[in-house]
Amino acid sequence: xxxxxxxxxxxxxxxxxxxxxxxxxxxxxxxxxxxxxxxxxxxxxxxxxxxxxxxxxxxxxxxxxxxxxxxxxxxxxxxxxxxxxxxxxxxxxxxxxxxxxxxxxxxxxxxxxxxxxxxxxxxxxxxxxxxxxxxxxxxxxxxxxxxxxxxxxxxxxxxxxxxxxxxxxxxxxxxxxxxxxx
Length: 182
Hints:
Elements: E1 4-9, H1 15-27, H2 36-41, E2 46-52, E3 58-70, E4 73-81, H3 90-105, E5 109-114, H4 117-122, E6 126-127, H5 136-142, E7 154-159
Parallel strand pairs: 4-5
Antiparallel strand pairs: 1-2, 2-3, 3-4, 5-7, 6-7
């Protein structure tokens, strides 16, 4: 497969492909599964990558989402490159789309849970100590995860250069932290 990689906002028609792609990688223990309902509910967060071949054929190549957690932090989540399209720059293009959207809305910090630390480090993220360096809103999202206790994902973070911290943000509400973290 050759051709140009392009990234666009996801539409309702993309949900089955996003669901299948995430499901495949979840079955390989590379990410958490996302119910189809969750994808629909958060569709505005998602981007889709496509490969456009020279003959105009468009092929689904991956998906990723930028989920706003608070006024100063957003999570890159649901990032998955289609199994037949790996090593084409698709993952980097999806992360770049999430970063561009964060810049557009004025969110200066990106966060992700991942098993692929090296990939995120290549995208400018830094591995963090999840026992000390997490925004309270990150934990509020974790409460819904089946692996809340015993989480084995790694936290990575990126401060977006040139995006100022929003002024006058209220403090996020307190949240429950997993046992053994603090």
